[in-house]
Amino acid sequence: MKKRRSNFESLETRQLLAAGLESCVAADFGVAVPPSSDVFVVGDNRIGESRIAVGMGSDEPAIGYDIALPVLFNPAIDFERYDALQQHGDRIYAIDRNPYSQTSALFVFRPNDEGALEAIAEVPLDFFVERMIVDGDQVLLLGRASPIYYLTTAETTAETVTPGPRVDGTIAVTITLGEETNVVRQSLDGVFQDAHYDDGRLVLTSADYDYDLPDVAGIPPFTWLLRAFELSDAGLQETATIELPYVVQTLLRGNELFVVTSISSHFEDALPDEPAPDDSPDDASGTASRDIPSFRRESSLTRYRFTDDGITEVSSSSLGSGEFISLRVSEDATTAVAIRVDQAPFSQQSIVDLLSFSDDSTDVFETVAFDSFHPSILHADSDYLVLQDWNDDVVMIISLDQTVDLALEDRVHKIEFGVADVWSLSAARLGDSLVVALPWSTSRPADDSTDMRAPTQLIPGAVVTIDLPSAEVVARTSLEGGLLISQFFVIDAEEQRFGFEQYNPAAFTTSRSFQFGRLNANGLFESEHAFTLDEQAEIETTTDHLAVTTSDQLIIRRWSDFENPIAFPLGDPDPVTTAVNDTYSLPTLGEEFLLEVLANDQIVGWNGDAQIVELIGAPQGTEIVRWRSISVPVSALRGVDSLEFQYTIQSGTQTSTATVRIEVISVDRDQIDALVDAVVARAAEDLGVSVEEIERGSVRTDYEATPPIVHLTVSTVDDVAKYTVDLDGQIEQQSVEQRELLVELALRAVDGLGDSITTIHEGDDFWLELTAKDLRPDGDGVYAAFFDLVVPEDQLALTGRLTYADEFGPIGPSNITRARIDDLGAISSEVTHPGNGLQSVLRVHVIAMAAGEVMLLPNQADEVGHETLLRGINEEPPASSIRYVPLGLTILPALVDDPLDIDGDGKISAVDALRVINFLGRYGSLTIDDVLSSSGEVDANGESRVQFDFTNLRRMDVNRNGTITALDALVIINRLGQVTTPADAESIDEIKLVTQIGD
Could you tell me if residue 119 is inside a domain? Predict the structure, then answer.
């Protein structure tokens, strides 16, 4: 699992993880610890020597998960200040964080006398660091302490769950670097939501939930606190506290604190113990014009000033109504820009207020309004504000200069890039230039054609250069391939040198690359070099080098020698995902085998979910199934004693390759059938019935046993018995139990009209229909049904097309290959109970491949949770209570007809050739296997994405070479040229012309 890339997020989202997780025990962080009792000395600068001496917290287990409470307004956090990798002067500070153990470690590096980078400090931490602040020799680290809290409900008694005391708080660790490394650990009340630091002063924003107060109209009762601290070698000392309504954003500039609060006018009038008032006016008819009240947000900006006596309010002003987006304040705290969206009915405008601050007042210098859905900030500084609307290729450049009174058309400029569906752009400023990353896209012909088969044009991604003073696009540099830029990194703004991280959204791999260069005199990007990045957590650039942290390393690439990176360990090396060799014993029977090769592989969770990405040297027909299994056809096993091939798995950016060895057991169907017949005869004798009264159940062969063993379940009306028999004929009875039949699942063959059939001709298609029946007296019906099925691949081919009966719909994951159905099921949506009647569940499309007798027997699905269910019963019925009815089918030889009669109308005409040509024009030249494979792709409703008439499809392969090409159409044309009617002559000439153009 990749670490959280906080600098890519625009809003901190917290999720409640209490459901399904075990209880976590944590130290009592709700009690503030005096700084003097929490001071530890970590030897000198020798790394690791005194690591155990750092007593971070109690001896109780560390907190396993971060649970933060739902809030009405999340603070607008500047995530660029949350980097876990920072450089200050010649020192590099890196936080190594483990999201599973919820622990961290601080590493500090600096150059030695020879100029080589070396570690000067390592501090292990027993919590997950979420904020790092560096000021000179001091490092302040902040984290949240929010263990899981279990609530007792009506269904959970005190005997089963004992709610523990609620413990919420903030962990603050102050580390002072020097001849000795001092560590001060403190526990602060309240879970911090936002933190701002400036020149020794820290302001924390926290939202405490009051469980004693009821919710008002669904809004949780919060108490928002702003707490100010002074930072020293002894840690944090609290100096002031402010209690406010819903805090949206805080900013600290020297002694000035700016706080944006937002509240709904409706909630403001509601009391905690009263329902929200319904003040909706009535319409002309005397009825309410709306059923729910309006909640209109009002935002305000309050300025505070720190003095020797504490903190005082300087001024407060309204920011207007609507959804507040962000406040940006200049470094000298003299000007600011506030952004909000006015969500008026049937219209929506973005409003930008340019603010100016005097000693005691806040004034609006100018207001800019324009139509917008929901703007995001691409770039903001003291000179310019650049906004992009949501899912739009338009940016607005707004000049923030308050020294002159500019006309609106001179202050606001709009630039359109002509790229559709742009979710998010990236930008960076380089002097007077702004570089913007555009993603690649596609476009259709300019005539607005609605034909989805019309060819599309690929528009490559690009770096667009904008001159900010004139707000004009001066250059556009196209990027090769389908790579997208995720973020810019400024290397040297004066030299207009920068880099950017790229990734390929269309590729399976999650690997990324980094490319750097500069703008030339014409504003075009000139690349100097590009290289692949390891799985990284944070990136930091300077004029000297690129620094990258992975899960266990700090990697430095100097621009002057970028091809020779230097790696430094961050703690112990992480385990790696490793594929492990597999050995299987498989028979030469008419089945395909699904190999679960990932079952014994070493897969590291935080690297990402492992998937199979490549097969090396695999026999023909071997395929990757759902990225996690390997399907091997039985045809690959015939004629060999063993075979080997390799597979590669990928987890994150890590890959590993292992070998699969298959020992082939030569056994045919007749041998297994003979063993099954012997077991049936033995079972009839044991159970005191005739052979005809024995109902054959599932047959499973364990080829891992020596010798291989066949497992067979047989049933009578009263009993169900399980037997095993080895290949030498030794039979053993495993169990016998009484049987109570509750449900029957059966297969029947039907044609396209749904009529039952018992015979089918070779090459024709039909449907296998699953039916269900409730066998209980006065039963209510079958609610859900699941089954497995294996078909002889030399006689039948499953196409993957699937339809459901009117009262049933898809449920759960399933897999249909050419010869196997795994865990296929359906669930009823019928409100009325169908009773004991026969219920049609679903149909699977099949093609008859070869003549002969076929016996098909559905089996119980083996996936956990895929159980057949009956109405009126709250648990799945026992497996022995389900009767699976087999299907016997006769496949007759193909009808003797003219192979050139494509549409089967009994005559050869120009229409037959046109059918082939139309198919080629739409799909191109395809093999029959390709078509079968594409038809197996289904949508969310279980319907095939591609529909074909398979009977006519096979007839299009006139020359029977397995591929539909222009040659098949020419064969028909040549026949028509020999014997034709005058009515076909003109059509033949047109067909020849079309064919020549197509060639």
Answer: yes
The DSSP annotation for 521-548 comes to TTS-EEEEEEEEEPS-SEEEE-SSEEEE
Give me the domain span that covers residue 117: 26-244
Choose among 434, 497, 425, 430: nearest CA to 471: 434
Residues 459 and 406 in one domain: no
Listed range (142-156, 383-397, 467-481, 719-733) with the worst mean pLDDT: 142-156
Instruction: Specify the DSSP class assigned to residue 916.
Output: H
Most confident of the following: 164-168, 590-594, 952-956:
590-594
Q: Of 899, 978, 999, 919, give the one whose Cα is nearest residue 988.
A: 978
CATH of the domain at 723: 3.10.450
Asked if 175 and 182 count as a contact pair (C-beta separation under 8 A), the reply is yes
**Per-residue pLDDT tens for 379-436?**
999 999 999 887 678 899 999 999 888 888 889 999 988 776 666 788 999 999 999 9
Express each pLDDT in 372-383 by its tens digit. 777 889 999 999
Rounded mean pLDDT, 951-972: 79
Q: For residue 547, is it within any domain?
A: no
HEC secondary structure over 371-410: ECCCEEEEEECCCEEEEEECCCCEEEEEECCCCCCCCHHH
Torsion of CA 13, 18, 21, 26, to 10 degrees: 90
Report residue 221's pLDDT band, with 50, 70 and 90 as the boundaries: low
For the entire predicted model, the pTM comes to 0.56
CB atoms within 10 A of CB 120: 16
State whether 334 and 428 are in the same domain.
no
Question: Is 44 a member of any domain?
Answer: yes
Considering its fold, how many domains does the chain have in total?
A: 7
Q: Are residues 217 and 68 part of one domain?
A: yes
Question: Could you tell me if 134 and 110 are in contact, meaning their C-beta atoms sit under 8 angstroms apart?
Answer: no
Check whether residue 715 and residue 807 sit in a common domain. Answer: no
User: Residues 570, 573, 577, 578: is their CA dihedral positive or negative?
Assistant: positive
Taking CA atoms, 667 is separated from 588, 670, 676, 713, 934, in Å, by 6, 8, 14, 21, 33
Residue count (the chain): 999
* DSSP secondary structure code for residue 10 in this structure: S
Same domain, 151 and 175: yes
In a domain, 564, yes or no: no
Q: How much of the chain is in helix, strand and coil states, percent to nearest 5?
A: 10, 45, 45
Separation between Cα atoms, residue 984 and residue 701, nearest integer Å: 60
* 406's tokens: 């500019």
- Tokens standing for 988? 């033949």
User: Residue 643's domain is classified under what CATH number?
Assistant: 2.60.40.10
- Of residues 956 and 57, the one with the higher pLDDT is 956
Tens digits of per-residue pLDDT, 707-731? 788 899 888 888 889 999 998 899 9
Same domain (yes/no): 730, 654: no
**Residue 125 corresponds to which tokens in the numbers above?**
């931490």
Looking at residue 822, its amino acid is: D
Are residue 437 and residue 524 in the same domain, yes or no?
Answer: yes
Sign, Cα dihedral of 43, 46, 49, 52: positive
Q: Which residues contact 313 (CB under 8 A, 6 or more apart)?
A: 302, 303, 304
* CATH at 871: 2.60.40.680
Mean pLDDT of 433-453: 65
d(CA 671, CA 352): 82
- Mean model confidence pLDDT for the chain: 77
Strands 103-111 and 91-98: antiparallel
Domain final position from 414, 437, 468: 414
Q: Which residue has the tokens 């900010």?
A: 468
- Domain finish residue from 738, 759, 775: 738
456, 637, 902, 990 from 973: Cα distances, Å: 33, 42, 13, 11
pLDDT value of position 156? 35
